[in-house]
Amino acid sequence: MKKMSKAWCVALAALAAPAQADVARPLTRALANEVALYSMMASNAYADDPGKTRFELDRLGWKKVDLQGGSVAEGRNSYQPKTPVGDVFSNLQFDIWEDSNSQRTVFAFKGTKEKIDWFAGNVAVGISIPYKSAKKHVREYMKAHPERAVTVTGHSLGGGLALSVSFWEGVDAVVFNTSPRVFDGMQNQNKPARRLAVFQENDILQKVRSRYPKFLAKIKPEQIVETHFDYAGRSTHRSDLLAEGLLACAAEPALKELAASVTLSVRCDLE
Question: Collapsing DSSP states into helix, strand and coil, what is residue 43?
């Protein structure tokens, strides 16, 4: 109980701390081309949520596989806890996407959507079991597939998981409306890699990130991209709406073709 109380105190202290200057890179067509794919993977990681827009990434040559390389059923993640105990103490879920046209692989970590777990998952400091498990699975995949180039992505808590894996394993990371929680170990792991944090203006976690010491120390302003899409009054934290906007702004032919196959409710605001 004392540990939990301390966790809440630390989180509330972060909320009360002075905010970092609101400096971020604006979205461009080139950035949309780069990050749209990852945003769709991060959103698709909410595989069991029928209310979200689904993006058919197989049209782009990507296949979702499990840890053994097998196919994954619709509405399922590549990995999820096998036991009720694992579901309670870790609840780690992610997808593995392999590009059939190259040696690229993307791990997309699912965020937390249950309201009861939202604060603990995104803000409060506590046990890091899912972070350790995420790192282990990526490391084992890289060992088994040394020929493949791995990138990690995720939305909300999934973004925090992806960033932590990136700092430990030195893999590129692109995250969306990310949790500020970063577990980098006692030795402040910070292996070099390309990292981008994309967030929607007025996202619910934006104020937390701007005051969270660890996030401020690890992610610099030039690594942050801010979008200003019109969600028509809907939640600024929704992963699929951010992905819709980024896809709408992408100019790469294959992405434009995919955008034409999806009913997008968010329009690109770039000239």
Answer: helix
- The answer for residues whose C-beta is within 8 angstroms of residue 99's C-beta and 6 or more apart is 61, 62, 105
Q: Are strands 195-200 and 172-176 parallel, antiparallel or unpaired?
A: parallel
Residues contacting residue 6 through CB under 8 Å, at least 6 positions apart? none
CA-atom Rg of the chain in angstroms: 18
Compute the half-sphere exposure of residue 142: CA atoms within 13 Å on the CB side of its CA: 18
Could you report the per-residue pLDDT of 94-135, keeping only the tens digit for each? 999 999 999 999 999 999 754 434 445 554 445 578 889 999
> Strands (DSSP E) along the chain, which ranges?
25-26, 62-65, 94-99, 104-109, 149-155, 172-176, 195-200, 224-227
Residue 5 clears pLDDT 50, i.e. is over it: no
Q: Supply the pLDDT for residue 81.
A: 80
Mean pLDDT across the stretch 162-185?
A: 90
Taking residue 39's Cβ as centre, other Cβ atoms within 10 Å add up to: 29
Would the CA dihedral through 12, 15, 16, 20 be positive or negative?
A: positive
Provide CB contacts within 8 A for 50, sequence distance 6+.
none
For residue 9, which phi and psi values (nearest 5 degrees)? Answer: -65, -45
- Hey, what are 206's tokens? 């934006």
- pTM to 2 decimal places: 0.87
Q: Across residues 220-248, what is the average pLDDT?
A: 96
Contact 129, 90 (CB under 8 A): yes
Give me the pLDDT at residue 248, please: 99
CB 154 within 8 A of CB 160: yes
